[in-house]
Task: structure prediction
Amino acid sequence: MNAPLPSHLVPQIDQRPVPAALIEALKERFGANCSTAMAVREQHGRDESSFESPPPAAVVFAQSTADVADAVKLAARYEVPVIPFGVGSSLEGHLLAVQGGISIDLGRMNKVLNIHAEDLTVTVQAGVTRKQLNEELKSTGLFFPIDPGADATIGGMSATRASGTNAVRYGTMRENVLALEVVTADGQAIRTGTRARKSSAGYDLTRLMVGSEGTLGVITEITLRIYPLPEAISAAICSFPSIEAAVRTTIEVIQLGVPIARVELIDHNSVRMVNAHSKLGLREEPMLLMEFHGSPAGVKEQAETVQDIASQYGGKAFEWAVTPEERTRLWTARHNAYFAAIQSRPGCRAISTDTCVPISRLADCLLDSVKEADESGIPYFLVGHVGDGNFHFGYLLDPKVPREREIAEALNHKLVTRALALEGTCTGEHGVGLHKIDFLVSEAGNAAVEMMRTIKRALDPKNIMNPGKIFTL
Amino acid sequence: MNAPLPSHLVPQIDQRPVPAALIEALKERFGANCSTAMAVREQHGRDESSFESPPPAAVVFAQSTADVADAVKLAARYEVPVIPFGVGSSLEGHLLAVQGGISIDLGRMNKVLNIHAEDLTVTVQAGVTRKQLNEELKSTGLFFPIDPGADATIGGMSATRASGTNAVRYGTMRENVLALEVVTADGQAIRTGTRARKSSAGYDLTRLMVGSEGTLGVITEITLRIYPLPEAISAAICSFPSIEAAVRTTIEVIQLGVPIARVELIDHNSVRMVNAHSKLGLREEPMLLMEFHGSPAGVKEQAETVQDIASQYGGKAFEWAVTPEERTRLWTARHNAYFAAIQSRPGCRAISTDTCVPISRLADCLLDSVKEADESGIPYFLVGHVGDGNFHFGYLLDPKVPREREIAEALNHKLVTRALALEGTCTGEHGVGLHKIDFLVSEAGNAAVEMMRTIKRALDPKNIMNPGKIFTL
Result:
């Protein structure tokens, strides 16, 4: 059991009663696909955040959109919350049953429904994970680029407007979801778009649902844009004498319009942790991991431009990887950073920040925050999708020492305040969840958040769709 | 005076009374910037559509967001509609005062507020036109790519989710608006986003407003993505033995992932009309106009790939243009197509279709519709942003012959039905306005349109924001 936290760092728990009649009705409708076993409930009542809450009262394993619709209809009848669940990789408490209710697990809705290679679109059920999707796309020569790190479901990635390492070139879920099927608060399934690449047909319900964190409906199917695998891919790492040098290189690359596919910052802490974890023997200096996609000539051209810029900022030890195996080795450093960091301090929990600022403000936002983190004494690592101006500090806390959590939250608060002053956002890709409810008000203003609440009240008058997330009502 | 049209082709006019007290209050607040002169009202009560309606009761020329907010507050007090007006280039009746009310002209809010060249963003007032913006960007080496043809305002382009010739590479207003300032139905100004490239901070109010056609608020400021002018640009025209050959070439180019910047179809009718209008001496055959952006090597590579594909489909007479002057000459054919067509039949009006389908369905959708148009006997021209699967028939009607309008509407109806069956949309870029209210229901379904109505009712309870557009309430 962790030591108690100061009350302002604990999510507000106010679980509504779940009538026995609802559980009975769910068991009748779903049989073995409705579970009230404590282990199952607990597994569905937490995520990768550091929040805690009593679990949902039951878990429904949906196999179809009709299952989701029926579960929502039953929940609506008893005015009980529903919380969609993918793989549980949220970092922001999206999955916690802070107002009670039932969890709808979409993991068994894991079919790729159709691949339209000739249109560069694919339609999947919400429980398909991004790795599974790319596996199933392999034979077509196409791929889905968005990579948030975790092997999240496409439904969860849509609900949080996720992005990740490839977003600098390919965009985020905002740009890559063409259409959705969504079960609304009254248990109806609607479609929010077509397979056309563009449309001016009425309100953009697709983009309204993308990033709505389950508060407006349960996403059941997603039509995505996919891309031809580039003719040539080449990856490189480059070490820098300072974080600033790495960041300034990135800024110049982006401002020049180089269509770089990935440009990730890994600070010296992360490199040290990854070296310890994976024996990679990398120079323990800040580094950029980069990837270039295009024709062989185009990739060569991009790489030369970037190498020129990097060398002006003292970048050295450019190491290239052209074969898939070599690329995988380089990317291991990035992909393992989170777990390597967790293991660097046994028993710790990580709190992840997620600010994103205009690229010209990146150095200002990042360097001052590094200084503050260094001074705090809290162990941390820093990684970033710096081409987008988005980066994550991971503060590594001893959960038995509430003071550490307070220090980390104070660091994050300063960072967010700085990012907002620099015309940025408190969350580039993780979502608001429980953690950033106050930050959202600071960022968007009361009137804009009130508009969100108005939409929420109109579309979910009983407030049953993942209540308590994004804003308080 | 035109002959009367069959009733189902006439927009429903039901103008609410505008109390004299409101007009007085507007005159007091806005002085000479509020006009009730009939010529001014009539100019603001029509657009490029073929619809007619009595004009708004007054026109307010806003100079600031505060002006817009005050005009909306006064209108709200008397429950009178407000209709935002840019340059009047809507093709779908967006500007018609079918429920009466006042027009808010944003044309004098025409300042480029700040250019953040280092972040590739710009913030403009809603009345800035796209040509003005590119003029003001010239010295920075950056440009705003979206080009719907008309020199529309950025506010109007946002409100209709416009796109045009460059969308195949750079996306539409959906992808390129980062944030908005919007005056809501209660006269408050809200901001919908930051200058960060990506964000997961709550509902995507930006995308909800983009394409809402003035029905949820008046857009007053827009923050846009801008792009470095490509190092190299090269344009080409290529004639084809048939529309099918041109379309199949396009499909293959897109499916291969060639990052072509523009690929426009111009049918032989359009070429004939443009030749007559501008004495261009082009081969009177279907043609593709293409543009390639990138590094010199990249552009050469793209162009070679496309030339190879085109020649497989019988494409001939590739004509290249590398200097700006030569490019302008080639693009004249495209840019003058609409006016050349109108002049080809003195006194005619054009009805423009706007379907957009997945690229693999383009030939199916287009070729059958060409056949029907040919058989109808109605003069027409056909142009298309075919790289996006979007194309426009322009049926050229004698407004004195209602039967022609009926035939054209029947052709459009067949075309939309076909596009929807092929998983496309009734409107790729013009919006719904008055013309496609029924089509939207066919496309999105009752439940999705009802969701739009629910949002509308919640955000505009008095139904004063451009009422009667997109859907009936």
